[in-house]
Amino acid sequence: MTASAVGQGILSAAQNLENIVDNQPIAEQQPEKKSALRVVVHSFFVVPFIIAIFAVLIFLVVRIMTAEPNSAHDYLEDVKIGGTTKRWQGAFELSKILSNPDMIPTDERFSRELISAFEYATNDKDLRVRQYLAVAMGATKDKQYVPTLIEALNQYEPEVMMAAAFALGNMQDVRAVEPLAELLNNGEPQVRLQGVISLGKIGGENTIPLLKEMLADPEVNVRWDAAIALAKQKDRTGLRILLDLLDRNYLDSFPNIDETEQVQAMMVVIQVAHFVQDLALRESLKTLRDSDPNLKIREAARVALTQFE
C-alpha cells in the first residue's frame, strides 16, 4: 500500500469520526429541548389553567350554597326597572312565587307597588307583562286587587282580559260576576270560554242563568265548560252535553281532539257527575267502568259510582 493511499484512509477515518462527534450532541439535545418546552408549557399554562378551573368551581359551589332565592320584591323590581326580557320574566316568576302562600309579602307597600306596576304596564308593548302580573294578583287571593282586575276586563287586548278573568275566577269574589258576564258577549271564543270558566269557579245563584245561556254558544268548548260549571252547582240543565262527553263515539267526531284530550274531558265529567245524581249518567259510568279501553277512565268511573246514592 502506498503512502498516498494510507494518507487518504486516515483522512477519511478522521472525517467520519468528526461527523460522529458533530452529530452526537444534536441527537442528544433534541429531547432536552422538548423536555424544556414541556416544562414551560406546564408551568406557565396548564397548571395555572387547572388551578383557575378549580378556583371557579369552588367559587360557584360556595355561591350556590350561600345564595338566597329571589323574593317577590326582587321579581317586582325586575318588572319595574328591568329590560325588555327581564320585565316579562320577572312578572312570570312573580306569578309562580305568589302561588305559594308562604311567599306572599304581607306589607302594604308591596301591594301598592304591584298595582302600580300593573297600571304602568299598559304602556308596555309586551302584553306578557300585564298577563303575568294579573295572574300574580289572582294567585294571592287578596281582595284588594279585585277592582284593578275588574278594570282590566275593559282593556282591548284579549290576552290581558283573559288573564284578568282567570285571576278573578281564582279569587271567587262575587263582585266580579257582573263584569265577567260582559265577556260572554265577546267576539273571541277564548274570551267567552275564560268568562264561563271563571263564573263557574265563583258559582252562586247569579251565575246559573248566565251559564245556561252559554249552553247554546256556537263554540263547542264554551258549551262543554258551561255544562260542567252548572253540574258543579248541581244543575242538570247541561245533562245532554255531559252524556255526550262520556261517549267516545261523540268525541271521535272531533278530529282535532286527540286521545289525551278525550281522556281529560271525560275525567272532568266523571268527577262532577255525582253532583247531578242522574240515572243516565250512572249508566254511562257503569259502561265506562266495565269496558272503556283506558284503565284510568275505568278506575275513575268506579270511584265516581261509589258517590251515587
Amount of beta strand:
under 5%
The Rg value, from CA coordinates, equals 38 Å
Low-confidence stretches: 1-11, 25-29
How many helices? The count is: 16
- Integer average pLDDT: 86
What does this protein structure show overall?
By secondary structure, this protein is mostly helical. The protein folds into two domains: 72-237, Leucine-rich Repeat Variant, CATH 1.25.10.10; 238-309, no CATH class. Helix content is 75%, strand content 0%.
Write the layout of secondary structure elements.
Elements: H1 3-66, H2 72-81, H3 84-97, H4 108-120, H5 127-140, H6 146-152, H7 158-171, H8 177-183, H9 189-202, H10 207-213, H11 220-232, H12 239-245, H13 248-252, H14 259-276, H15 279-291, H16 295-305
Summed up, what is this model?
With 309 residues, this protein is mainly alpha-helical. The protein has helices at residues 3-66, 72-81, 84-97, 108-120, 127-140, 146-152, 158-171, 177-183, 189-202, 207-213, 220-232, 239-245, 248-252, 259-276, 279-291, 295-305. It has two domains: 72-237, Alpha Horseshoe (Leucine-rich Repeat Variant), CATH 1.25.10.10; 238-309, no CATH class.
